[in-house]
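Entry for the shared binder. Reason: the reviewer on the internal report wants the predicted structure included alongside the sequence.
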Amino acid sequence: MVRWTKWSDREEIRALWQLRFGDSEAFTDWFFRERFSPEHSAVSVEDGRIVSSIQSCPFQVRIRDAILPCTVIAGVSTLPAYEGRGHMRRTMHFYMNGIAARGGIVVPYRPEILAMYAGFGHFPVTRTAYFRISDPAALSADADGVSVLDLRRDEAAMHACYYRFSGRYSAIISRSLADMRLKLADYAADGAQGIGVFGKDSLRGYCIYFNRGDFYAEELIANDDECTEILLRALSRRAAAEGKTVSGKLPPDSKPQEGLAFDLRPMNVMGAASVAALLAFVCGEHSLCAEITDGTVAANNGIFTFSGELSGKAPHLRIEAGRLVQFLCGYASLAELAAEGHAVLLDPGAARELDRMFPRRSCYILDEY
């Protein structure tokens, strides 16, 4: 049996979570106290016990210039003895077909292995520049002007900084101040620390990092390149003092720097819980049509105008729902998708017009759940 989660399931799901993910007690306690959202989560039950679970939380996501409701999957887990029986697949199908009615138009998340979820039509929509500084001492000079941040006291300044930063990207979580407070509490529960660079009237940038064995920059936000360099030098200075290396995440459009090794690769995938609503939010009024197929969400199948309405007209292209999500986010153009065999352009002129109206965008997300 697959069903939506109940509050009374919390302890059983918590035990499954810790079995599969091995998070610290402090973080797991915090997560199931503050982020457990049974209305947006689903479980598979067999032999009177929960054997598979999908946990998610509601947020808002920026896709191009539109802000729309989403649910971010925090974890997908199955009891080891019940793996290979289709529980995760059934739970995901149930979840994806019902989550739109509970507020999730799209579902972004970061799987450990991205390809595992391609079968649901969930494909990459963001890229991250994973970096490493193997010799922090070489970058640790001239890092003055950096302040230690308090993740509670400085939340408003950090939120304002994040708000300015997030407008540059598509497929990024659009955080309210309440979302920011929760995210910072999330980091603090797992021992994160913060540093920042203040300008005359505002916070220019900040870095939230973990010091576990080595330094890891989980969230480095800066609204100018100079600030990024200052934060990296400051983090390098701290790491060099302890004889440690530095690694972390930067936006995909970050500029290369001497002493900094980048590995640009996909990070988050995204599924469409409602193609109609997604088109309406992102595209507005457009009469061009696409024949959309989806092997996971039944309601996503049909011919839709780009304003999100079902249509009886001849389509201008054929595309899978997950590939449409990549296009709408700005991760890939229709021309690129067609060249890779992921779209059929029945009217090449119309497809070129869509690529012109909805060009590629820099897609970045910091939230892994």
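Summary line for the report: The mean pLDDT is 95.
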